[in-house]
């Protein structure tokens, strides 16, 4: 009985040992599989394909900064017209925006006062001429009598003096009559030169004083383009630059102009300087008040022009990706930006001619990464 008991005890102990060894073997197998998978991933990572980029070879070019501002077409000469005599405005014949010719009547004032003065001057002139006629006849009579010895030298001299006084009176009356005629003509306000009425300050029935502005006329002829320019921009602009004037509503209408006048002081309200650009032979398509664009180019300088996609950032400063032609590895190079234009960035420093700059695909790069070049840089 003891042998059977011993046999029955030893048998279960053998089974327990085999069951414990099975999980250990499975764990070892899983560990080996994971280790193998990790190695395969590392190999795949090591064999990762390079990023495809497009590059451009750095080349120096002439860069002329171009500045454009918006202004308006204005008359070169503005005339403020006024009556030379005062009175009540009886008639207004033109309005703002109307074109007038030289000598055209623009307005009239009531001429009753001037007509009365003219009649009075005419009467004075007639009286003076009658007195002159009488004095001339008396002088001739005294002259004849003196030659015959029937009068005295004193009477002759008196007649001569009376004649001269009468002649002076006639001259004064003629001058007064001419002034009265002129004053009557001043009741009509006429245009001194052909142009366009740009302002009107009176209405019919209003009483105006002499020299009070009634109309403002922009004379025909060459026009000016007027711009309000920042003070620093005026200081950087070369002397006597050539300015291209383009009509804002129709870019096909263009003209060349030159700086004619620069205001000597800065406007206190806008902080800008008024600049007038003379436009010889102003096109008919540029009427008064038309909005225009004035463009001027500065003196050309050497710079590098790159697409704006080439620009990146390194430590918060502008930079670009440079490709090593031998290893195809990329590196970040800080650059100095001169200006930003539409679609391009102007580089002033940091690059050398012949270097390859990444212009597309740079957002996927990291320092030292190998790339594959396509496009213009290949």
User: Can you give the helix content as a percent range?
Assistant: 25-40%
**Would you count the extended β strands for me?**
24
Main sheet makeup: 6 strands, mixed
**Helix and strand sequence:** HEEEEEEEHHEEEEEHEEEEEEEEEEEE
What's the number of helices?
Answer: 4
- Low-pLDDT regions: 1-30, 39-46
How much strand? Answer: 35-45%
Broad structural category: alpha+beta
Notable characteristics:
alpha+beta, 32% helix, 6-stranded mixed β-sheet, 24 strands
Summarize the structure in words.
With 378 residues, the protein is α+β, with helices and mostly antiparallel strands. The protein is 32% helix and 37% strand. It has four helices and 24 strands. The chain has helices spanning 2-46, 112-148, 153-185, 231-236, and strands at residues 51-57, 60-63, 66-75, 78-82, 87-92, 99-100, 105-109, 188-190, 195-200, 207-208, 213-219, 223-230, 242-247, 254-262, 272-279, 291-297, 301-307, 312-314, 317-323, 330-334, 336-341, 344-349, 356-360, 371-374. The strands form five sheets. Strands 1, 18, 19, 20, 23 and 24 form a six-stranded mixed β-sheet that branches. Strands 3-12-15-14-13-16 form a six-stranded antiparallel beta barrel. Strand 18 and strand 19 form a beta hairpin. The protein starts with a helix and ends with a strand. Residues 1-30 and 39-46 have low confidence and may be disordered.
């Amino acid at each position: 009985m003891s042998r059977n008991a011993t046999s029955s005890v030893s048998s279960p102990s053998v089974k327990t040992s085999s069951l414990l060894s099975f999980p250990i073997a499975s764990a070892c197998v899983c560990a080996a599989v994971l280790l193998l998978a990790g190695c395969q991933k590392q190999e795949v990572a090591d064999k990762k394909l390079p990023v495809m980029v497009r590059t451009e070879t750095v080349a120096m070019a002439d860069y002329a900064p171009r500045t454009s501002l918006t202004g308006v077409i204005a008359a070169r000469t503005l005339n403020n017209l006024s009556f030379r005599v005062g009175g009540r405005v009886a008639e207004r014949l033109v309005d703002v925006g109307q074109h007038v010719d030289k000598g055209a009547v623009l307005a009239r004032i009531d001429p009753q006062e001037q007509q009365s003065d003219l009649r009075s001057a005419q009467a004075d002139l007639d009286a003076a001429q009658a007195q002159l006629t009488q004095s001339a006849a008396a002088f001739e009579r005294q002259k004849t009598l003196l030659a015959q010895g029937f009068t005295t030298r004193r009477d002759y001299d008196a007649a001569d003096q009376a004649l001269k006084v009468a002649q002076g009176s006639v001259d004064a009356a003629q001058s007064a009559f001419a002034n009265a005629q002129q004053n009557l003509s001043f009741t009509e306000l006429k245009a001194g030169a052909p142009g366009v009425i740009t302002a009107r300050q009176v209405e019919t029935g209003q009483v105006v004083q002499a020299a009070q502005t009634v109309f403002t006329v922009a004379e025909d002829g060459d026009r000016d383009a007027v711009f309000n320019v920042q003070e620093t921009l005026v200081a950087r602009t070369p002397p006597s630059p050539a300015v291209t004037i383009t009509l804002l509503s129709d870019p096909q209408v263009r003209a060349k102009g030159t700086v004619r006048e620069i205001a000597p002081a800065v406007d206190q309200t806008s902080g800008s300087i008024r600049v007038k650009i003379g436009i010889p032979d102003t096109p008919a398509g540029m009427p008064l008040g038309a909005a225009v664009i004035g463009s001027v180019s500065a003196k050309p300088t050497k710079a590098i022009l790159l697409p704006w996609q080439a620009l990146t950032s390194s430590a918060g400063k502008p930079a670009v990706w440079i490709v090593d032609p031998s290893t195809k590895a990329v590196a970040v190079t800080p650059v100095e930006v001169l200006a930003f234009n539409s679609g391009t960035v102007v580089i002033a420093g940091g690059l050398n001619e012949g270097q390859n700059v990444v212009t597309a695909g740079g957002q996927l790069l990291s320092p030292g990464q190998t790339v594959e070049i396509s496009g213009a840089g290949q």
